[in-house]
């Protein structure tokens, strides 16, 4: 399927942030247009075939997520529906185990989006993401725009601030400074918002449309906040888990915690030969940012706990479980008023059960 003249077909890939970026883009564009937006996590080639049948003449824009666990998949996506606007959110370690542990293999597979899209279209890249330099942009003839916070990108956010349940930041659009707000926590989500700002601005949406559209309905279980009794807060981030996302979630915990910071971290999948090193780095990071209680759950996640202890964390503050009931029994004893608790793990590890347990046992009376 090729774009009918003028129909923006926006495809999003990347190791993290695809679904949230898609939700931001869809939310802004639907302020003025009838938008076809794929369902959250509907990002396989089978889904793309279904989408091709569902898109019709009433749609004024199409927003899709292109997932990839192996080479050749994104080429296949593009042969079913060819995008004319593409976003690569970042290149991280999701699925790196399928590429012999080499992030350049991931970048090469993600580059299939650049090769498979309309060669005169728009490509949006993350200027702050080191691994994005491995993307194959040399032959691309279209327009390239960058987003960033740390570097001088085309769309750059600054003055980031954590608010109650979201982030505010400033940026310049057409020479005018504007302040924007997103109802989801974490610096990493500001990048997702910037991708959507770049698309919307390119398509002629006004700063007011953009401001309104960023106040989106966020995907479920993405840094969802539960305010429970005794001023206890639970952060539910239990959909995906890879090293970048784990660090980002820990950053949210350290930024919003009022008193003690409790991190419950489950397995990260598909890291292959990098697992040991990446698990160790998480444990070291936990110690570095001053987490008060560190709980790991699942096979081999004690590699994280052991790394935290080796760095100097008090062993009595580090706990490892392979049994959820035993983990929940510890929480009954451990949790105190004013605690902030992060629960993070891949959906296959069912860490959401721990969120539900905390919600049920600590509900406001």
UniProtKB/TrEMBL annotation:
It comes from Lysinibacillus sphaericus (strain C3-41). PANTHER family: UDP-N-ACETYLMURAMOYL-TRIPEPTIDE--D-ALANYL-D-ALANINE LIGASE (PTHR43024:SF1). One of its GO terms (molecular function) is ATP binding. It is an enzyme of class 6 (ligase). Keywords: ATP-binding, Ligase, Nucleotide-binding. Residues 12-200 form the Mur ligase central domain. The keyword 4Fe-4S does not apply. This is UDP-N-acetylmuramoyl-tripeptide--D-alanyl-D-alanine ligase. InterPro entries: Mur-like_cat_sf (IPR036565), Mur_ligase_C (IPR004101), Mur_ligase_C_dom_sf (IPR036615), Mur_ligase_cen (IPR013221), MurCDEF_CellWall_CoF430Synth (IPR051046). It comes from the Bacteria. Pfam families: Mur_ligase_C, Mur_ligase_M.
């Amino acid at each position: 399927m090729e774009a009918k003249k003028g129909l923006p077909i926006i495809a999003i890939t990347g190791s993290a942030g695809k679904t949230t970026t898609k939700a931001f883009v869809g939310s802004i564009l639907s302020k003025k247009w009838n938008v076809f937006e794929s369902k959250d996590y509907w990002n396989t080639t089978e889904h793309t075939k279904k989408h091709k049948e569902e898109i019709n003449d009433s749609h004024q824009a199409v927003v899709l997520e292109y997932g990839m666990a192996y080479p050749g998949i994104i080429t296949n996506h593009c042969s079913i529906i060819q995008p004319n606007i593409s976003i690569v959110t970042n290149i991280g370690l999701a699925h790196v185990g399928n590429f012999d542990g080499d992030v350049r293999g991931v970048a090469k597979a993600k580059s299939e989006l650049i090769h498979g899209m309309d060669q005169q279209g728009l490509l949006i890249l993350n200027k702050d993401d080191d691994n994005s330099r491995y993307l194959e942009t040399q032959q691309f003839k279209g327009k390239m725009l960058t987003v960033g916070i740390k570097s001088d990108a085309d769309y750059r956010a600054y003055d980031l601030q954590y608010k109650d349940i979201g982030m505010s930041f400033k940026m310049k659009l057409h020479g005018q400074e504007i302040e924007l707000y997103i109802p989801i926590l974490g610096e990493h989500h500001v990048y997702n918002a910037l991708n959507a700002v770049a698309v919307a601005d390119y398509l002629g949406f006004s700063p007011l449309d953009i401001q309104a559209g960023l106040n989106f309905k966020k995907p479920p279980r993405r840094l969802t906040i539960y305010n429970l009794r005794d001023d206890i807060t639970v952060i539910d981030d239990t959909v995906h888990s890879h090293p970048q996302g784990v660090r980002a979630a820990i950053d949210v915990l350290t930024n919003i915690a009022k008193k003690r910071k409790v991190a419950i971290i489950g397995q990260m999948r598909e890291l292959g030969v990098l697992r040991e090193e990446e698990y160790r780095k998480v444990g070291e990071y936990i110690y570095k940012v001053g987490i008060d209680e560190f709980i790991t759950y699942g096979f081999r996640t004690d590699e994280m706990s052991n790394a935290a202890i080796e760095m100097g964390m008090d062993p009595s503050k580090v706990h490892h479980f392979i049994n959820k009931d035993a983990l929940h029994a510890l929480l009954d004893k451990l949790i105190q008023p004013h605690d902030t608790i992060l629960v993070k793990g891949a959906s296959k590890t069912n860490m959401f059960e721990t969120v539900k347990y905390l919600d049920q046992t600590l509900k406001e009376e």
